[in-house]
Each structure stands twice: as C-alpha cells, then as structure tokens.
C-alpha cells in the first residue's frame, strides 16, 4: 500500500495555498484528504467546485449518499468525516449506523435513496428496474437520479484517494458496524 505524506501549505502551488487559506477560514483546518488532493495543481480546485455545485439533493440527502458510498468502498476516512457531517445535517448516531447498514427505516424517502445508492455503487450502475421504480415512487425525479450519480462520483473520488494513500484520519473515527445476523 502506498502511503503519502500530507502536504503542508508550503508544499503546494500558490493557487492551492489560497485554497488552503479558504479551507482554514471556513473549517478551522485543512482536512488531510483535501491537502492530499492538492498534490495536483488543479485537482483541489476542480474537486471543490464539484463538491459545492448546485444540486437538487438536500444537504441531508447528500450526506446519506456520502455515507452509503463510503461504506460500500470501505473508506474509513470518509466514514469518519461524513459521520460528523451527517450529525451536523440532522442525522442521529443511530440513523447514521442504519444508513451505513443499507437502509433508513426511519424515513421512507431516505430509505429509497439509501437502497438505490447502495445498489448503484455495488453494481457500478447496473441495477434492477425495481430499485429505480422504488426511487421514483418515493418522489425522486430523473433530475434527482442524475444528481445522485454526481454525488456518488464525488465520493468515489475521495474514497479511492484515501484507500490508495492512507493519509491519517483527522476526524473522530466512525463507529464500527456490528455484523447483522443472517
């Protein structure tokens, strides 16, 4: 496994130094995974534009997608970050664990989103028609579907980057899932 050192502000391009300053101002720190993407002179800016682009999904729905994709991809960094962000966007600890296990019985619409996102991620977009029908029946639209795909792509980028680089996790660790009895 390749292990990367986390670049500091002085290690990155002037454009990325400005982005580090913005992140520091907004978050109080530069998350290690954001710093790592700054090895590229352009990728951090491109990624931040993607991450902050307009979407039909609510912040809570985006966190649902982030949690599901990160669980499927076994990204400990993103699970830690999105557990914290999920709580900031109204999810409880129990709801976050349920989402990571593949359902959201506490909310029918989010349950459809969890199940669709999980199937898309597990099967690389090749899903049964029933999953898509349930998503639409929950009130989502074709616009929602496209926005879910963009959110999945966003999270896959960071999941794979962390799984490749294994930079230190600088968020409180996400709880381990207890295996569900069959």
From TrEMBL:
Record domain Carboxymuconolactone decarboxylase-like: where: 42-104
Residues in coiled coil: none
GO molecular function: peroxiredoxin activity
Pfam families in alphabetical order: CMD
Transmembrane segments: none
Keyword Flavoprotein belongs to the record: no
The keyword Oxidoreductase appears for this protein: yes
Keywords for this protein: Oxidoreductase, Peroxidase
Protein name according to UniProt: Alkylhydroperoxidase AhpD core domain
């Amino acid at each position: 496994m390749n292990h990367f050192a986390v670049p500091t502000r002085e290690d990155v391009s002037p454009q990325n130094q400005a982005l580090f300053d913005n992140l520091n101002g907004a978050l109080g720190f530069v998350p290690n995974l954001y710093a790592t993407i700054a090895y590229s002179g352009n990728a951090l800016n491109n990624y931040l534009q993607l991450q902050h682009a307009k979407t039909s999904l609510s912040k809570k729905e985006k966190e649902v997608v982030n949690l599901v994709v990160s669980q499927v991809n076994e990204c400990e960094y993103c699970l830690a970050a999105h557990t914290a962000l999920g709580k900031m966007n109204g999810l409880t600890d129990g709801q976050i664990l349920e989402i990571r296990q593949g359902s959201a019985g506490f909310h029918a619409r989010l349950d459809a989103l969890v199940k669709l996102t999980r199937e898309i991620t597990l099967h690389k977009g090749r899903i049964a028609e029933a999953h898509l029908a349930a998503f639409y029946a929950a009130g989502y639209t074709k616009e929602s579907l496209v926005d879910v795909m963009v959110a999945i792509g966003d999270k896959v980028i960071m999941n794979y980057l962390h799984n490749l680089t294994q930079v230190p996790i600088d968020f409180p660790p996400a709880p381990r899932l207890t295996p569900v009895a069959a």
